[in-house]
Backbone:
């Protein structure tokens, strides 16, 4: 992978140790992280969990030999931005990387939705005067729904627009919405049965 990416103009740093990888990520010098789940010393899932708890929102593209809806949902819940199942081609890898990098470089702004305020540049979110801690995926989902405040968005729409993956199972979205409800309150995210979800302001 390093040789292929170098040929396409990317500057790559490779490490086989979880602790070193975490130090590199915390340095702020990385634009994208390619992560194999089978890491020595600490698992890929533990690495992502520690990364997000540190407040680092660098996109993570997971590569794995493991398949299954539960595996995918668990990874996205932790804060993985996308994943590739081995084997995969360099063409597909480059396409996924470019998609994540485009999203990272998009112009940041603050979105208001009732008492909820989302700052995409600083990766921060407030409910009234209280700051709430959200994962990158939760932040992206809240941003998308806040932009469409009080409008129903479907699970498939969220997969297409937030995950950038129309082929993922809908339970991936369900897991993310469940986590968001725990943080912003269940009354703030309505389920429209058979249609999707609507972000509302219960105090209005």
Residues:
């Amino acid at each position: 992978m390093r040789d292929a990416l170098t040929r396409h103009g990317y500057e790559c740093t490779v490490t086989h140790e979880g602790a070193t990888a975490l130090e590199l990520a915390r340095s702020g010098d990385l634009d994208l992280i390619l992560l194999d789940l089978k890491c020595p010393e600490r698992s890929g899932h533990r690495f992502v969990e520690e990364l997000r708890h540190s407040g680092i929102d660098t996109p993570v593209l997971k590569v794995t030999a493991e398949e299954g809806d539960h595996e995918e949902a668990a990874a996205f819940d932790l804060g993985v931005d996308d994943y590739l199942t081995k084997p995969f081609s360099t063409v597909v890898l480059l396409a996924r990387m470019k998609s994540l990098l485009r999203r990272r470089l998009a112009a940041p702004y603050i979105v208001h939705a009732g008492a909820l305020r989302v700052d995409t540049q600083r990766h921060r979110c407030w409910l009234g005067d209280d700051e709430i801690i959200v994962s990158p995926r939760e932040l992206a989902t809240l941003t998308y729904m806040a932009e469409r405040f009080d409008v129903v968005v479907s699970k498939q729409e969220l997969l297409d627009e937030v995950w950038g993956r129309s082929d993922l199972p809908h339970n991936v979205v369900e897991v993310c919405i469940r986590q968001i409800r725990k943080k912003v309150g269940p009354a703030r995210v309505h389920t429209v049965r058979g249609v999707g979800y609507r972000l509302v302001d219960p105090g209005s």
Strands lie at 33-36, 60-64, 82-85, 110-113, 116-119, 124-127, 130-132, 189-192, 196-199. The chain has two domains: 2-105, 110-199.
